[in-house]
Amino acid sequence: MVAFPLIKLIILGIRQVSKPMANRISSRARTNHFWRRFCIPPAQCDYHWVDIKFKMHLLGFSVRHVQPLQEDEAAELGSRILSEFFVFLVAGGCLYVEYVRQSESSHKKLQEEQQRFSDLQDRLSHLQGILEESQKDIQQLREVHICEHHAQKANPQTSEERKSSQSQPTPHKIPA
Q1: PANTHER family in the record, alphabetically (predicted)?
Q2: I want to staple 29 with a disulfide (CB 3.0 to 4.6 A). Which of 6, 35, 37, 171 is the partner?
């Protein structure tokens, strides 16, 4: 149970570190020519166009042509999109790690339950075997008791007479 809060703290730390890194990426994207070439077209053509069309549609206006952003504004918007994408990517990675950890935990728990169930089934089958043996022994004792009961009916001696006759030695005949 100690690992759970520790992992949550690590994930929170990673997300907090990703924000300054995203800001650094954003500032680089504004100044670096390679990043400007990478950030400006999606911001200018795609994002700005969809944003304006959507806003105008909500206001009830019809727009045929959307003015492209100026290069500096497009670079700023593109760098913000890139930094938000980076934060989203880090958060998604953290969610994936947490998902994998939880699925491993649930898989381990499932295996433990299956093992416990298997052990209980083995114990049950063992106890059923003992029960069957006990039932056979009880049946044999009943048969012996029934045989003794029939023998008593055929030879009506009392149990005391039987005991006394068993304890007294039988007299031997002396040969003449």
Answers
A1: OPTIC ATROPHY 3 PROTEIN, OPTIC ATROPHY 3 PROTEIN OPA3
A2: 35
